[in-house]
Write a structure and sequence with these properties.
Helices cover about 30% and strands about 20% of the residues. It is α/β, with parallel strands linked by helices. Helix 7 links the parallel strand 2 (about 80-90) and strand 3. The structure holds adenosine-5-diphosphoribose (APR). Adenosine-5-diphosphoribose (APR) binds near residues 177 and 200.
Length: about 230
């Protein structure tokens, strides 16, 4: 076992080849839906049914999706490296279903719901829908266990500590447009190998010593894992 810690930061792009829409690419979710209406605490207060419908549909789609080669390749790293931590902005469970054993969900999880009043009262709901009137154990309305815009990111501190202690950093499939998650990339030790897999040119790359695999995750992550496990 290599005594090294690999930290992966992933976004919607790693699930694109599993058939799940990203947010900001052409045809992405934020082209079809108004973020404020379906992914903010204000939207929830204004029209909870619209929010529930948005996540019920995404939950069903995520449950029907399969982990792709990128998810499977990342899981393979755990066979050779002492510690592999996946910090994901994704709310699907494709990393877990692909075999990764240590996944931190910064923005919540579709397959979980929680009390509208008590964010610690969380329950697994698999691919079930949440309807208005569905109650948590405390008698309050059930809501998606998702971090909406305008809400705190409870796992941020844990994620920051992982990045600060990384020996290798891998970024895959995120535009790094949303804070505080995007700020994680600035916390890694300076002199470690840093890789990014994304078909797009990302602005921050210009002034950094990142090794950029300018291709889809399904090929780029597989190539990188082959290099790291040679
Ligand atoms: N392989 C790798 N990367 C890809 C692929 C692919 N097949 N397809 C698209 N990408 C890249 C895009 O180039 C882009 O950089 O994935 C990134 C997707 O960016 P976004 O759609 O902004 O998704 P993400 O970065 O995960 O968004 C972050 O924003 O709306 C919030 O909560 C939401 O967690 C989400 C956060």
């Amino acid at each position: 076992m290599l005594k090294k810690k690999i930290v992966v930061i992933s976004g919607a792009g790693i699930s694109a080849e599993s058939g799940l829409s990203t947010f900001r690419d052409a045809g992405g979710l934020w082209e079809k839906h108004d973020i404020n209406e379906v992914a903010s605490i204000e939207g929830w207060k204004k029209n909870p049914e619209k929010v529930l419908e948005f996540y019920n549909l995404r939950r069903k789609q995520a449950a029907e999706a399969k982990p792709n080669k990128a998810h499977l390749a990342l899981a393979k790293l755990e066979k050779l490296y002492e510690e592999v931590v996946v910090i994901t902005q994704n709310v699907d469970d494709l990393h877990e279903r692909g075999g990764s054993g240590n996944v931190i969900h910064l923005h919540g999880e579709l397959c979980k719901a929680r009390s509208e009043r008590d964010e610690l009262l969380i329950t697994d709901i698999g691919d079930s829908s949440i309807k208005l009137g569905d109650k948590a154990e405390d008698g309050c309305q059930l809501r998606p266990h998702i971090v909406w815009f305008g809400e705190l990111v409870p796992m941020m501190e844990k994620a920051a500590t992982e990045v600060e202690n990384a020996d290798i950093l891998i970024i895959v499939g995120t535009s790094l447009m949303v804070y505080p998650a995007a700020g994680l990339v600035n916390l890694s030790p300076l002199n470690i190998p840093k890789y990014i897999i994304d078909p797009a040119d990302l602005g921050f790359l210009k002034n950094e010593d990142w090794i950029h695999y300018k291709e889809n995750a399904g090929t780029g992550v597989v190539k990188l894992v082959q290099k790291l496990t040679r």
